[in-house]
Amino acid sequence: MFQIYLALISAQTHDQAMPSYARAMQDGDFEAAHRHARRLGGDDGMADAPALQALGDAALLLGYEEDAEDHFRRAQKLQESNDAVRLLSCRNAGWQALNMHRYSAALHCFARIVQDGAATVPQKAEAVLGAALVHHQLGQQAACDDALRQARVLGDAAEDGRWLLLADLLALDCAVRLGVRCAAGLRDHVFWQSAAVRGDHRAQWQRFADAMASCDARRPAPELAARRHACLALLLRLADGERDVMSVLYRHSASDVAMHVEIALAALAGEHVDLAEQSLQRGRHADPRDRRWSLDQRYCQAKIAMLKGDAAAAFKAYAAYTAEALQCLRSETQVIKPLDGMALPAAQPSDDISARLPAKYRRAYRYIADHYRNNDLSTGEIAAHIGVTERALQLAFRENLGMSPTAVLRRMRLDAVRAELLAEDGAGDGILKTAHRLGLKSRSSLIRGYRKQFNEAPSASVCR
Q1: Angle between helices 405-422 and 359-371 (to 10 degrees)
Q2: Residue ranges of the HTH araC/xylS-type domain (predicted)?
Q3: What domain count does the chain have?
Q4: Rg (CA), the chain
Q5: Which domain range does residue 377 map to?
Q6: Residue that is last in its domain, among 301, 334, 367
Q7: What is the pTM of this model?
Q8: Could you tell me if residue 47 is left (phi over 0), alpha (psi between -120 and 50 degrees) or otherwise beta?
């Protein structure tokens, strides 16, 4: 699911400058897209930023995570402004985190883009779609629906109508996936029950059909979107008990492990245990990489064992499924609020900023996180802690974050101030005393920085 939307978003981003790459992405041919990006200069030491960015997207979709990270870093270094570096590093880190099922870090990255005054409408639309994917994967369908509504608003405002098409496809995707997972025969798939789909899929089907029809010759509907649309229809037919769609679904699945699990779930919903087991077996060796939070796969294994009468294997698999679901919820679901009002935790060494820095400089970020309340904390002290010069520290932060260490420190302090002001008793000490206790001395800097970071005055946060 993640791959489809990153591919379509990357295609829309590069369709003017790199049409051959965009066409390959829209067709779902990631190998061809990778070749086009290399040919257009993405593998050249003098390559431009768009070619490197495209090459990074294609590498990520092909599972070349280390190559993708290298291309992304090179693309970020070629940006001409701190705003561009900051937005691109958030964007890249968000998709990398989502690829690794690190949902909390991904959500932080996408939320920062939505809240960034320098972000364009397409950049915000992409970030909101990414956030919707995160919420859906965590079973938080109310938050996902809020993000999808925001994506439709942004899609209406964008010049390219395919942003609206993407929002409608993702809404349909989520509805179908929930419909399968909350089918009568899968009620023990408890992770998804709180997100039970409301009503039927007819509204989403019609909306997406209208969006497809609105595409024209200048901007045709992507083939990858049409294939996903057809695949969703087949999954629903399988969940309704139609065995004969399996062969067509297998052609859609290729070497995609996630798709094999989707098929297995639909087969179980349609009471075809043999087809579900067959699908899991086909996907077993398709992707050797270990992924976090394989909840659907663990559930399918438990359900198949139970339906085959192997109580011991079923109990063992259910226990593993339950333990992983609890661990996922504890570690990933931190702050779930509407994107425009999200208060980010102030000091989390494992959040999106840490993920965007090279390993050596993550120690510097952790040091800032541990000491940001100290009024006397300086870049010299931070640099000395990890054994580098102040200049090296400044360069590393600017190239990877689009921010200086001082700006990161200020952002962290402002996040902490906002978190306290939004709390029920947040105004107990007064705004200025709260800010001073958290390392912000200057009243004018507090108000100016707060407005820039959160698009409101500190007093407005207290009144919420």
Answers
A1: 40
A2: 362-464
A3: 2
A4: 23
A5: 343-462
A6: 334
A7: 0.79
A8: beta
